[in-house]
Design brief:
four-stranded antiparallel beta sheet, 13% strand, alpha/beta, 452 residues, globular, eight-stranded mixed beta sheet, single chain, Arylsulfatase, C-terminal domain, Alkaline Phosphatase, subunit A
Amino acid sequence: MQKSNICFIGLFSFVNVAFAAHKDARPNIVVIMADDLGTNELSCYGGKNLQTPNIDRLASEGIRMTNNYASAAMSVPIRASLYTGLYPARHGSYQNHKTSYCDIKSVTHYLPEIGYRVARTGKQHSLPLDVYKFEEIPGFEINCVSPKANFDTKGIYDFITKNNEPFCLYVCSTHPHVPWTWGNPNEFDTDKIILPPNAVDNKETRILYRKYLAEIRALDTEVGAVLKTLEKAGTLDNTLIIFLGEQGPQLPFGKWTCYRYGQNSAFIARYPAKIKPKTTSDAIVQYEDILPTMMDFAGAKPLKDLDGRSFLNVLYGKEKSHRKWSYGIHNNIPEGTAYPIRSIQDKRYKLIVNLLPDSGYFEKHLMDLKNRNQVWASWVESAAKDSHANSITNRYVNRPAVELYDLLTDPWELNNLAGQKTYNRKIKTMRKALDSWMKQQGDKGALMDVAF
């Protein structure tokens, strides 16, 4: 009898241990974020210069969004939007490197309230720390302008396996942010590179573009390492994986603008229990929608007073549309002289309003003529002897008050339709919606593009 009791107690203890090991089976969340990535270069988005097999794997095993947009094509504003679900005018980081308001909340408050651990490895940027209270995990480069970017995933593995609570982890790469010093540019043939249609095609641009592509290769390698770590930990299929491109590259018409090259951002999601493989969606979504979507996925009630809203049903294939409009904001200080821009678009048309068009655009990092590690100096030299190059550089610097583009026929925004009477009604409708959004946000326009 005594032996039986011992066996019973032993069995009871085993059951308790087994239950404890699986006490919270809720799914995890991993967000992998690039830094200044041109979505057009990913092979799953049609890129021809290189294959990105690890990022492509996510697309083949999940859903690829084609109309995800950054409301601000700069790291600090858009990461704050990602973490808070608020547009830049409301979270306070409406200029690059501007600290967010101290009385707002972020994912680091919301998810822990429902039992999730929230951590980040890699690029940080967002302040104040009381708003962005991440558990910082070692392993990935923090400084986006570091010439080196060694990484390891031991910190990730230790974090996701240390207890049985569900987790949310942001893996924030510094690729392909400048300086383009990582990876092997010799992989790419200078003469065979396909440049974007809005680029000046000269030898220096092609040489620099090889370095940019090498950093995209390094980014894809990091994505593969994260996936292997999740597989090793046995959590891959119980994890919603989101891959984000952030904003466009540090090239003209990309980062620091409201052009599509700067705002259009890769969004790929994998969760095999609910997301069908090899699917795509053209639903309009923005970074502000990602936090509400994650909270919805985790089973939380909808958060009040956010600008974003969940598009989980789009990811699950239950809905085909989400937003009518996506909105954009750019304030150029401290990255250059004042040049405030606002934008609005639907699936076809993009309206850009330059609030101080007579001042001319200047961005100090990209357009320093002494910096031969940027393409602009060579573009200016080409413009002096080539009419096509002159046209490209001139339209980048000198912009009209209003720009309208048909994204269906002109995705690289090369033909401004704003001067054609046919589009006057369309412009009026879009401008009214943009003005209404700015008013709702408390956006003061040009008055926000001042020193802080």
